[in-house]
From TrEMBL:
Name used for this protein in its record: Oxidoreductase N-terminal
GO CC terms of this entry: cytoplasm
BP term (GO), one: NADPH regeneration
Organism: Penicillium bovifimosum
InterPro entries: Gfo/Idh/MocA-like_OxRdtase_N, NAD(P)-bd_dom_sf
Domain Gfo/Idh/MocA-like oxidoreductase N-terminal: 8-131
Lineage, opening ranks: Eukaryota, Fungi, Dikarya, Ascomycota, Pezizomycotina
SUPFAM superfamilies given in the database record: Glyceraldehyde-3-phosphate dehydrogenase-like, C-terminal domain (SSF55347), NAD(P)-binding Rossmann-fold domains (SSF51735)
GO MF entries: nucleotide binding; oxidoreductase activity
Amino acid sequence: MTAGNKIVRVGIIGCGEITQVAHIPTLNFLSDYFQTTYLCDVSPNALTHCSKKVTGSIPRTTPDAETLCSSPEVDVVLIANSDAFHVPHALLALTHNKVVFIEKPMALSLQDADRIIEAEKNSAGKVMVGYMRRYASGFLDAVKEIGDMDQVRYARVRDIVGPNADFVKQSGTFPKVFGDYKDADVKGLEERMEGILEQAIGTELGVEVNGDTAVQWRHLGSLGSHDLSAMREVLGMPVSVLGASLCRAEGPPFWSALFQYPSFAVSYESGIDEVPRFDASIEVFGGNKTVKVCFDSPYVKGLPTTMHIREKLEDGSFRESVVRKTYEDAYTLEMKELYAFVVEGKRAKTTAEDARKDVEIFGMIMKAGLEGQAGLNKLEN
């Protein structure tokens, strides 16, 4: 089947910011490919607001994920609600043999990641994880350039950003935040997240779950998963973490790590402050060439991902170039890949097995950071 004769019907679970700013507008623009047919959220006002944003036809709405996942009017279940419910709703969708698109982080514990992997094996459905940066054309170009290098000597991964609100208010999508949740839903979210953190940090890492470790794990799962997933595609899995500095719950949310690869190291720094800018990049240094891919905010549609190359030419001269292949944003390119995944049977590179590796790296960073802090405490005492 091709775009000319197949419209993929999408049911979205979660009608918060990312759905309002990115998913609904992108699916609307790609009306030759998709139609949003169902919306699910525990906020009645969010359902009403988002249903008016959908073009083509008025979607059905429900507060119950089971109703959406079981609907014959849904081909793809797009999961974009709270991280705490990504796994149970993915499992529910797979039980109904749906294609599942899960916003990152797919899971926050190895146990939950394994549950999705096993459920996919036993389902006629399949899973694609939403790492949109990895579908940006500039990123794909950079992966190829880096792959052609004779060697990698060093690399840097950086993601220092201001508040999302500063970009969202410039997006032209006019999202709204609603608070009409039932007390039981709020309590259920809190209890589920507590259970996830206890499993991931307490059981799997053997580390105390407290304010600091919980905040760090959530940051790694949100902003950090973008960077670490892209780093893995460019360079593979690190061998170890030589050291890490973790943010503290009462301080600015900044963290850093030094990854060891077989023949080189990668420095990683990330954080969120109040400065309204988006400074995200991956830079790889080879013998005669340096390749850097720069990402801009995904909340303003059409901002390009660019590739920057500095190299020594055969005649000994220096050349610096910037490549912008397209203004198509990463979310649009990602949704086109989703269409190929559903209709054409193209394999997704952002699989459940791939996403599990992020959780492994979260643990490596957490352990290295806590070991470093313990050593510092000894010196202070």
